Amino acid sequence: MAEFDFDAARRWARFDPQRTLARRSDDQLPFVNPSPIGGQDLLLDTCVYIDQMQDRSPQMLDDLILQRQVNHSTVAIQELMHTVGVLIPSDARTAGVIAEIRKQIRAMPPHRIFEPDVEVLGRAALLSGILCRLQGYEKDRKLRALQDCVLFLQAQKLGLVVLTANVGDYDILLQLIPTGRTLFYRRK
């Protein structure tokens, strides 16, 4: 059984600025660009799967995914399966959406799927609480913030870069924990 070190997590969270943080301008952030693609392996945020399914991913993003080692998180599987659960069975579009989500999840090589450990989960909950307090998040934004924090810290622990279109939340996370790595993209 894994043990969580509460006191170490509280010491770790000393970065808490106790003030609202503002999103920085795009020119201060790392975005996917058409220059030669190399670098660290990726951990995909759920929005990447969704954008690819909905044909909203730019060609640069698709090229990047083909050229770098791609890893997957159980967080993304959880979020995709949540979508399956909320779909209305009687809606004519539901079967097609479920088929696409099934295809995405089945395409994830089992040896490239990572689950967060107790340290990541505990610290992500603490980080999420700080993020929600600082940014004034309410209700559904709180759960999304928790999932983003888990993915962000999981990537950091594994030495991976989170690939995401969620500039607003991940920019704040990068300001709180500058040692994290995120690569942003804009949807088509």
Overall description:
The protein contains eight helices and five strands; from the N terminus they run H-E-H-H-E-H-H-E-H-H-E-H-E. It is an alpha/beta fold and 188 residues long. It is globular, with a radius of gyration of 17 Å. The mean pLDDT is 91.
List the helices and strands and how they pair.
Elements: H1 6-12, E1 42-44, H2 46-53, H3 59-67, E2 70-73, H4 74-86, H5 94-106, E3 113-114, H6 118-135, H7 140-158, E4 161-164, H8 167-176, E5 182-184
Parallel strand pairs: 1-2, 1-4, 2-3, 4-5
Features:
188 residues; alpha/beta; 5-stranded parallel β-sheet; 5 strands; 52% helix
Radius of gyration: 17 Å
Multimerization status = single chain
Give the strand order of the largest sheet, numbering strands 1, 2, ... along the chain. 3-2-1-4-5
Largest sheet entry: 5 strands, parallel
Strand content: 5-15%
Low-confidence stretches: none
Mean pLDDT: 91
> How far apart are the termini?
45 Å
Return the string of H and E elements: HEHHEHHEHHEHE
Number of helices: 8
Helix content: 40-55%
Number of strands: 5
Bulk shape: globular
Structural class: alpha/beta
